[in-house]
Amino acid sequence: MLIIFIYYFLSIATLCACYYFRRSRFTEKDYKYNKPLRWTRRILIIWSYLFMGIQGSICFRKNFFRDVENDFIIGSALFFLFAYIIAISWVEDITHPFDKKKK
Predict the structure, then answer these.
(1) What residues have CB less than 8 Å from 73, skipping those under 6 apart?
(2) Does the record bear Membrane in its keywords (predicted)?
(3) Domain coordinates in residue numbering, the chain
């Protein structure tokens, strides 16, 4: 039961961190000159890819969560898999809106 709680907590916390980076409205100078912010974003992207792999393994392979025979966990893993695809594309696309500014 503790493993399932940790799984859901980390999954939701990672999505919240991706949402924070998308909506925090950092400027272009923040990403160019603030090295800790840039590395935090990179670590978040790597962490999100790791969790997306975990979600994929829960959906498509035989493992601990499949042995429980709880369809709710498999359904939530599918939801998180699609949510991570959207969240990662959000976080990776942060600097591109600055290229499209009107002058």
Answers:
(1) 4, 58, 65
(2) yes
(3) 1-93
